[in-house]
Specification:
Blueprint: E1 5-11, E2 16-21, E3 26-30, H1 31-36, E4 44-45, E5 50-51, E6 66-71, E7 74-78, E8 84-88, H2 89-94, H3 99-110, E9 125-127, H4 128-133, H5 135-148, E10 150-154, H6 162-170, E11 182-184, E12 200-203, E13 215-222, E14 230-234, H7 235-245, H8 247-253, E15 257-265, E16 269-277, E17 279-281, E18 287-290, H9 308-323, E19 328-331, E20 338-342, E21 346-350, E22 362-368, H10 370-385
Parallel strand pairs: 9-10
Antiparallel strand pairs: 1-2, 2-3, 4-5, 6-7, 7-8, 10-20, 11-22, 12-21, 13-20, 13-22, 14-19, 14-21, 15-16, 17-18
GO molecular function, one term: gamma-butyrobetaine dioxygenase activity
Pathway: Amine and polyamine biosynthesis; carnitine biosynthesis
Function: Catalyzes the formation of L-carnitine from gamma-butyrobetaine.
Length: about 400
């Protein structure tokens, strides 16, 4: 994008600057924002891409003294205190305040597009080695993970430690009370229901934390011959269905604070307590995170008694939708498979399997935060697409 500027002028008694582009479009920039984002060395530390200007020195009612078109690729502004600022055309165009430009910037920075699915999921698969050593494949993996919510990596070695390598490929893994990585297998005196052979109902991991892990990684090292199938469901897709089917139930689940608890000993001893809404929504009422784990939902429930039964009715309807055959997808991990999924969106479960005298099923698990994953995605995109 190499936009050219046709004309520039001050508007509204100097409170706005209007830019007319060569393609005939126009942009209006508030002067307080322009002064706040001056790119000169005094106001901006280029090596850190960080603002040096302290907010106390910003006049929120500032107006321009003079604005000029330096050339068709740059505008210059002189402020009342004679401070001078310059703004490149491309920089300005990307930061236009129009709805279209802002939507384009949101797409570029956050990749908000979602591909919803149910039992018809075509599980995306990418070889583990390609992700580890090929930037295009790693970029494809993370883009698909963001859009679809789940990707299966195939062909990893059937031994512990592969997730640590994958963590380094992203940046770093998330440490929790269960350790940097954790072993999902049948254990005596299990400190987590996952460490048994029983069925695991659909859940997201760790809603007991104020900031639950964004991405979960599960590596199959050993698989039982009978049972142990994995199940997943698109929580955002189901939330949308619930909102249409029963808006009142959706409202209850997106507004009621549910108590979660987790107490025990693993990486260290812990006593964690938190409140979460089953469906976290943004300002538009759109689901942005599911916080649902029946195993760690506390017996304490901090709401008035008369609201308890309506809550249970709403949760039952949501749970029934999660478990409906049209929404859930079932598959079985093979040794060397690593399933990676969005823990804020995809609920996962497991079918039961027979217990034995020896360990018959062994998965290694780990977490990563979305901040870390999205950081790597943006860096890979810049490298793969040669973008600034």
């Amino acid at each position: 994008m190499n936009p050219g500027i046709q004309k520039v002028e001050a508007l509204d008694a100097g409170h706005f600057v209007r830019v007319e582009w060569e393609d005939g479009s126009e942009s209006r920039y508030p002067c307080v924002w322009l002064r706040d984002n001056c790119q000169c060395p005094h106001c901006f530390l280029r090596s850190a891409r960080a603002r040096r200007l302290v907010f106390e020195d910003l006049d929120v009612n500032i107006v321009v003294k003079e604005v000029a078109l330096a050339d068709r690729k740059k505008i210059s502004i002189t402020w009342p205190d004679e401070h001078a600022s310059e703004y490149e055309a491309e920089w300005l165009k990307k930061r236009c305040f129009s709805e279209e430009a802002r939507a384009e910037m949101r797409e570029d920075l956050f990749l908000p597009e979602r591909q919803y699915w149910g039992s018809d999921l075509q599980l995306p698969k990418i070889p583990f080695e390609e992700v580890m050593y090929n930037d295009e494949s790693a970029y494809k993996w993370l883009c698909t993970l963001k859009k679809v919510g789940i990707v299966l990596l195939t062909g990893a070695a059937a031994r512990q430690g592969e997730l640590v390598k994958l963590g380094h490929r992203i940046g770093f893994l998330r440490l929790t009370f269960y350790g940097p990585t954790w072993q999902v297998q049948d254990k005596a005196d299990a400190n987590n229901v996952a460490y048994t052979t029983g069925k695991l109902c659909f859940h997201t991991d760790y809603p007991v934390l104020q900031h639950p892990p964004g991405v979960q990684l599960l590596h199959c090292i050993k698989q039982t011959a009978a049972g142990g199938e994995s199940e997943v469901v698109d929580g955002f897709n189901v939330s949308n269905k619930l909102k249409k089917q029963n808006p009142q139930a959706y409202q209850i689940l997106s507004s009621t604070a549910v108590d979660y608890t987790d107490v025990g000993v693993d990486y260290c001893d812990f006593a964690v307590q938190n409140k979460q809404r089953i469906i976290d929504v943004d300002s538009r009422g759109q689901a942005v995170r599911i916080n649902y784990n029946n195993a760690t939902r506390d017996t304490v429930f901090d709401i008035p008694a008369e609201k308890v039964r309506p809550f249970y009715a709403a949760l039952k309807e949501f749970n029934d939708l999660l478990n409906s055959t049209e929404h859930k997808f079932t598959y079985k991990l093979e040794p060397g498979d690593i399933v990676t999924f969005d823990n804020w969106r995809v609920l996962h479960g497991r079918q039961s399997y027979p217990s034995g005298s020896e360990v018959t099923r062994h998965l290694e698990g780990a977490y990563a935060d979305w901040d870390v994953v999205m950081s790597r995605l943006r860096l890979l995109r810049k490298r793969v697409l040669n973008r600034d």
